[in-house]
Automatic annotation (TrEMBL):
Origin superkingdom: Eukaryota
Name of protein: TRUD domain-containing protein
Keyword Isomerase: yes
GO molecular function, one term: pseudouridine synthase activity
Chain positions covered by the region annotation Disordered: 159-194, 570-603
Biased composition (Gly residues): 159-169
Matches recorded under Pfam families: TruD (PF01142)
TRUD domain sequence ranges: 318-534
Organism of this sequence: Miscanthus lutarioriparius
GO CC annotation, single: nucleus
Length: 648
């Protein structure tokens, strides 16, 4: 759904429940470790961090690269040699660059421009110095702002051994108009990795990324800075929650496992392991689903039977498969910009991961008033996500209408269903979100972990009277379309809500009215989504606890600490320290407004010294929201008005 801090569930079309069973009260994500997510790979394997060992396969690296110092090495002696070659000013500039590279972090590692140098022979000597001494840095010659003099630019390289830039972007290529504020080149550096690679080893390194309280882009951004790689160098099947402990597969092209493994002792809240070399990289949607282990704390209800009935009901009855709400916490920045129109202030305060907002503001700063051009400044894949968000908005409303009008007990004439009588060879795969190869896994894409942009589906059909007589379809087979050029709409009244809402918003679901493909529903292929979803492999356990900071579910790192304590203890210690500082508010809402009954609730701290927690474990297919399952269980809203803890 669209990212918003004020959108209510009703406004987003989320209004129905699968059962009439009463809910209870519980706190979601009191600690980020209460929300554990393991990706389920395409082959059905659960992605877990189980080893820090290097793969048995070998990658050929020449002796020169083996001896080359890394970005983290002590460069004091080399800097003194460089000082003799280029002087104090250039030496200090290089030293600052090396410090930024070594520190990693979220800030950009900006290139540095050395002093103007008219002596070509001396420039060649400087280039050779970097080639021999700082193999992880790349140099090239650029024009000074006066258009006459030449300067050497030094920037962070990429891949094993750093390289000399790639794809025609190395030292021999000169740049023009690099003076004043225009010298910086923000285009991606070479991300194709080492050229010294064995033909017998897969060209992609696949690893398991374990992260705590960080989103996927943030974690890969940190790793990329340390390796000198752009975020687009990494491939992954889907982004995972920030406020959670998650493990997922990631691939990177031609990077040695040893380089990545060496980062573990410097990474905070991040670990990498389970390395292997594979022939193909990951792309968005290349997963089966996610396995969730969710702990609800402070559980209270009128009776323990009420809790058990609600949990059993979720496992048996499932939930309405809504697209959940996604939110951010920068509303004040947006509000200030709306009131004052201060672009510079907004750019300073908008987080760097808000790519769309920053792209629009930067375009408006250059071309005031040209709003269409500003919208086109948003990366293409992200532009398409706005369309997908609107598709989700329509789908939610259609799902609510379908449930309210026809219930969830049976299929009715005109419903869309997966065609069980369709031969396997006629099955098709429809992408809900179109992507291009260039940006498939760019940091520019901002998705919640529970919402993947691709679904593989069978062909669908409209149920007729003959199908009802055969009785081969159930409500579990009912799907609804995400509008697009190839979408088939239901053959009953549910279809009208799509077109009615589109007309109210001035949007045509059948033709492109404005000529901008990326903002048109008809530019999307569309797709289909089950109205109803049952959790897979559903397990649950009631437990008691007394310490709010205690761990109630085991993470991958907890398991590893028993077998590899040296590698795991540092991160576990950091996690415990951070958890003690966390004092998340109670995010649940009591199902009973009568305060006089609250002292009688099971699990209430007023009646028992021990507190009650509910641990749930279940698997959902890609594109399903775990928060919608919790909503069904608690019968409470996931909107900001009712839940203060961030869901994504």
């Amino acid at each position: 759904m669209a990212r918003s801090t004020s959108l209510s569930e009703a406004e987003a079309g989320i209004s129905c429940f699968a059962s009439s069973l009463p809910g209870f009260r519980g706190v979601l994500k009191h600690r980020y470790a209460d929300f554990i997510v393991h990706e389920v790979a395409r082959d059905g394997a659960l992605v877990q961090l189980t080893s820090f060992d290097l793969p048995t396969e070998c990658v050929d690296v020449n002796e020169e690269d083996k001896a080359a110092p890394s970005a983290e090495a002590d460069h004091s002696q080399a800097l003194e040699s460089f000082r003799s070659l280029c002087g104090d000013a250039d030496c200090n500039a290089l030293k600052g660059l090396l410090e930024r590279v070594s520190a990693g972090g979220d800030s950009d590692v900006s290139p540095v421009i050395l002093s103007p140098d008219a002596d070509k022979a001396h420039r060649s000597e400087v280039h050779n110095f970097f080639k021999k001494t700082f193999k992880f840095l790349v140099t090239d010659t650029v024009e000074h702002g006066d258009g006459v003099q030449r300067c050497i630019r030094v920037r962070l390289g990429s891949g094993a051994g750093g390289g000399r830039g790639g794809g025609g972007r190395g030292r021999g290529r000169k740049r023009k108009n690099m003076g004043s504020s225009d010298w910086r080149d923000d285009r991606p550096f070479d991300s194709r990795g080492s050229s010294n690679w064995s033909d017998n080893v897969g060209k992609f390194l696949r690893f398991h990324l374990y992260k705590e309280n960080k989103d996927t882009q943030e974690a890969l951004g940190v790793i990329g800075k340390m390796l000198g790689l752009q975020p687009r160098s990494f491939g992954f099947a889907g982004t995972k929650d920030k406020r959670a402990v998650t493990t997922q597969q990631v691939t990177v092209f031609k990077v040695q496992a040893s380089r990545l493994a060496a980062l573990n002792n410097r990474l905070f809240g991040i670990k990498v392991g389970n390395f292997c070399y594979v022939k193909e990289g990951l792309v968005l949607g290349k997963l089966t689903g996610n396995r969730f282990t969710i702990t609800l704390r402070g559980v209270t209800a009128e009776s323990e039977d009420m809790i058990k009935n609600a949990v059993d009901g979720l496992g048996k009855n499932g939930f309405i498969n809504y697209y959940g709400l996604q939110r951010d916490d920068i509303n004040e920045v947006r509000k200030h910009y709306k009131e004052h129109g201060d672009i510079d202030m907004a750019l300073r305060n908008f987080p760097r991961h808000l790519v769309a907002e920053r792209a629009i503001l930067q375009c408006l700063k250059k071309c005031p008033g040209n709003h269409l051009q500003a919208l086109k400044g948003i990366p293409r894949t992200l532009r398409m996500m706005y369309v997908h968000s609107y598709q989700s908005y329509l789908w939610n409303h259609a799902a609510s209408m379908r449930v309210e009008k026809y219930g969830i007990s049976q299929v009715v004439e005109g419903d869309l269903v997966y065609n069980k009588e369709c031969p396997p060879e006629e099955s098709t795969s429809v992408n809900i979100l179109e992507t291009d190869d260039v940006h498939t896994n760019s940091i520019e894409i901002d998705l919640c972990s529970e919402a993947q942009p691709e679904e593989s589906i069978q062909s669908v059909k409209i149920v007729d009277s003959g199908d009802l007589l055969k009785g081969i379809y159930t409500f579990d087979d009912v799907v609804l379309p995400l509008p697009g050029s190839q979408a088939l709409f239901p053959g009953n009244e549910v279809a009208e809500i799509y077109h009615e809402m589109g007309r109210k918003d001035g949007i045509s679901l059948t033709e492109n009215a404005h000529g901008v493909k990326e903002f048109s529903i008809t530019s999307m292929k569309g797709g289909y989504r089950r109205v109803f979803q049952r959790p897979i492999g559903f397990e649950w356990e009631l437990m008691t606890y007394t310490d709010d900071s205690s761990s109630l579910a085991e993470t991958d790192l907890d398991v590893l600490s028993r077998t590899k304590p040296k590698e795991a203890n540092e991160l576990i210690s950091n996690q415990e320290q951070q958890d003690k500082l966390e004092k998340a508010p109670d995010t649940s809402v009591p199902t009973n407004e009568n305060s006089s009954q609250e002292n009688k609730l099971i699990g209430s701290p007023d009646t028992l010294s021990k507190k009650l927690a509910l641990k749930l474990a279940f698997t959902l297919p890609a594109s399903c929201y775990a928060t919608m399952a919790i909503r069904e269980l608690l019968k409470t809203s996931t909107s900001v008005a009712y839940q203060k803890t961030l869901i994504c």
